[in-house]
Description:
By secondary structure, the protein is mainly beta. The protein has strands at residues 3-6, 9-12, 17-23, 32-38, 45-51, 56-58, 66-71, 76-81, 90-97, 106-107, 111-116. Strands 2, 4, 5, 6, 9, 10 and 11 form a 7-stranded mixed β-sheet that branches. A hairpin with a 4-residue loop joins strand 7 (66-71) and strand 8.
Amino acid sequence: VHLVESGGGSVQAGGSLRLSCVHSDYIYSRYCMGWFRQAPGKEREGIAIYDSNGRTTAADSVKGRATISKDNAANTLYLQMNVLKPEDTGMYYCAWDVGCDGSYNYWGRGTQVTVSS
């Protein structure tokens, strides 16, 4: 599975961004996709997960400000981020988990998000 992220950029605190992750065609009936981010000098953090069953989850750090969704017809996963904070700055990656067991097998190259105060 090939993943390509886009939609990052530089915004002021309080602003919004919508990240997109286009994926190649797949053969798996069950899968999960996730958004992760990594800030400079920090460990990678899971942001939100989409399950092919339709269930979504979000990390406490972004709950209420981030919405993960998917357009299956367009092979695209989205992450809508609102009320952005400087601590949201980082490289955002999407990843594909074939068995929904937490072992994300495929990763995109990321898109940079920079939030200024």
